[in-house]
Amino acid sequence: MQLKKQIDYLKKREKQQQDKLKRKRVPPPSSPTRKPKPRQASGKTPRRRVSKRRVKLSCLQFILLAIAVATIFTTLGLFVTRLIIQRPTRPSVEPSPTVPQTLYLPPSPPIFSDLPQAASQPVPSRLPGRENSEVVYNLTSPPNFQQSARLQAIVDEIVRLVAVRNFPKKPLSITLIDVKRQEIAGYRQNQLRYPASVIKMFWMTVVYAQIENSIWENESDFNIYISKMIQDSDNQAASFILDSITNTESGSKQSEAEFQAWLNKRQQVNRFFQAAGYENININQKTYPVYYLKLPEPKGIDLQMRGNPQNPIRNQITTDHAARLIYEICATGEAVSRAASEKMCGWLIRDLRSEVWKKQWQDPGDFNPIRGFFGESLTKADVKFASKAGWTSNSRQEVAFVATKDGETAYVLAVFGNDDAYANDGKIFPRISRLVFKRMRATN
How many of the other CB atoms lie within 10 Å of CB of 351? Predict the structure, then answer.
């Protein structure tokens, strides 16, 4: 309404000006020094008056245009404001399908509180009718190694090294294998000891044997669990794998009959290796803590299987057991099958470049399979390095396959130091590794 009144007023003023121009005639000025301009024909508006009228019309047009533009912008502004206020939240944009997605452990079962979740990650499932199927290791006897005085001299030098630095020798075990010459040497290498997370390499082998024997629907369902268990030594993933391959679960204490049935299932991981000559091996107990089960230590049926609390049954293997298995996986490729061995050795491979492993495991409090272990002293060596380490508050263990890329040297080294002194010293294992590497290079 205000705009209409302004336009009507301007039109009225314009009409009044036009009427005045029609009634009034102004003669052109004369000057003695200038030639007079010709007069306009009768009834015509003088040029000068037309010019003023054009100026007045231009002003009117400008005012009208300004008012119209202001009105348009005001209306548009109000419209946009309403859209902003009332516009609903847009759904999040899905990532491009061309970008590779990170795999995470599935949310159930189990829930890993320290890992990202992905509902799309499947849980391994057994094929129908294979719920209670049991398999055994394909290799029925140990490799035929020859005892070597040359290797024994290196092992003896390791023992002297730890003794000079006041480490106890009694809780120490060593196995050294020359892969190319099929030779072996050791120190207390047949002494059964607690292996800590080295045991996870054995569970991985059972997984692949079951996969090869068509017990599981999809091999890929295990990949993220094996990755976490072997590369990060994750107890949560290891717990899930041990339950899966034995078809058992942690739980409350059971009656004797129920416990024996449960224990028989869990014992199949021992039977798997015992039938292949891994004498007196025991690998049927979980590594702790297992946070997703709220088990900082064994409880319920897991504690029940330990027997006498004063002399509990625990996992136990020898350095010969550990050295043999990684030899069969990475050196000969005979563990389960050639294809399975290649996959398993791939999980055990470590990148020794310091800029890689220092970035991957930045927290000094986290388990680092290189810092404080064999690989730390080989970061500048041109080698292929596969390993599985273990570390507790009172022990340090590792087994590794080391091969120079020129093909001249290949060996397996296993060392278990089951004492606080080894657990609390992050330099002794790298020193042992450096010594062995130098001696093996010099004698090959």
Answer: 13
pTM: 0.74
Do residues 316 and 284 make contact, with C-beta atoms less than 8 angstroms apart?
no
Whether 257 contacts 232, CB under 8 Å: no
Is there a domain that residue 200 lies in? yes
Do 202 and 282 lie in one domain? The reply is yes
Is 417 in the same domain as 310? no
119 and 242 assigned to the same domain: yes
Say if residues 177 and 147 touch (Cβ distance below 8 Å). Answer: no
Are 125 and 167 contained in the same domain?
no
**The tokens 């302004």 sit on which residue?**
6
Per-residue confidence in pLDDT tens, the chain, 444 aa: 444 444 454 455 455 555 544 444 444 444 444 434 444 444 444 444 444 444 444 555 656 566 665 566 555 555 444 433 333 333 232 332 222 222 222 233 333 444 434 344 568 999 998 988 999 999 999 999 999 999 999 999 999 999 999 999 999 999 999 999 999 999 999 999 999 999 999 999 999 999 999 999 999 999 999 999 999 999 999 999 999 999 999 999 999 999 999 999 999 999 999 999 999 999 999 999 999 999 999 999 999 999 998 999 999 999 999 999 999 999 999 999 999 999 999 999 999 998 887 777 667 667 889 999 999 999 888 999 999 999 999 999 999 999 999 999 999 999 999 999 999 999 999 999 999 999 999 987
- 296 and 205 assigned to the same domain: yes
C-beta separation of 159 from 173 below 8 A: no
3-state secondary structure of 417: strand
**CATH number of the domain that 376 lies in?**
3.30.450
Within a domain: 23: no
Reference 191, options 96, 317, 80, 35; nearest CA is: 317
Question: Cβ(130)–Cβ(214) under 8 Å?
Answer: yes
Tokens at residue 344, please? 């398993």
Amino acid at 44: K
Per the structure, the count of domains in the chain is 2
In a domain, 201, yes or no: yes
Say how far apart CA 385 and CA 376 lie, in whole Å: 11
167 & 295 share domain: no
Beta-bridge partners for 349: 386
Task: State the residue range of the domain holding 180.
Answer: 147-193+348-444
Query: Within a domain: residue 327?
Result: no
d(CA 125, CA 128): 9
